[in-house]
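Input/output pair, single chain:
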Amino acid sequence: MSGFLAFMDRYRDEAACLAALAGLRWPAGFVCAGCSGRAAYQLATRPRVLECADCGRQHSVTAGTVFHRTRTPLRKWFAAAWWMAQDKRGVSALFLARELGLGYETAWLMAHKLRHALNERPEFALEGLLEIDESYYGGRGTPQSRGRSLAVPNKSLIALAVEKVPATSRQGKGIKSSRFVAGNARIAILPAATAAHLGGFVRGAAKSGARIITDAFKSYDGLADGFRHYPIVQDGGKNADAVLPIVHVLFSNLKTWINGTFHGVSKKHLPRYAREWNYRFNRRRIADLTGFLLRRAATRSTITYRQLVDGGQPTGALPALTG
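Output:
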């Protein structure tokens, strides 16, 4: 727990957390959204608000971020971010509620708001040799749950692309003796396994000209335009591990993580859990993942409780920093 204790010593009180958050909001120093003034005063009665020394315009440090209008101390938010980022298994809302002395609904809201901050930036697309496949989560237990139909309640289609990186001598034979290991990955929850949806996912995840290995599913046929596409027949799935060994391991890891830590998730909330897994996976070699999460939380647009409950996924730039 020394890492956690050192982290909490650094953010020892609300003032330290506010100063850190202001530094993330204005990394080059405060700039007034009204007059571009550079000097501001912190209000004694409302410490989360900065008032421009030139024009008097007030700016909330938390406005427009995932911390927008929260009544929970920022120190508890920062602690939640540490646990979510540092524990590779992830943490449940029940864990956060117990450890931070919160009600379950508050802990659930905080966890989902932090997940909302985790999005891969489109300019960092996958490149080189890729494996791409789709899988399904939920909706099991009935004859209707088989196949590619999404008519079954709580059944979701997951698309996943991963870079195939040659294994080093230290990494041995690679994943499933393929001589390759996983690079970065991209994941998405799609409404259907159509050429439009799968093609759109691939074009958003991979750089033009990438070499792509898929199974022979017809919806991937259009990838020949813009990519070097290698569709391979899987013989009814009998040689699936030989054709797409890495992406299948990632699907297994994702589902094990969801079911092990959260004991399953609903269809409408699955996209945020998938993004959390993807974000952590792509930064698995970074020691200070908490810093990345806090930076995203400070610059990602806000999301309301109602939007979270309804499974909403708002996107867009950070709104004006006004109080």
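The chain has eleven helices and eight strands. The first strand starts at residue 40 and ends at 42.
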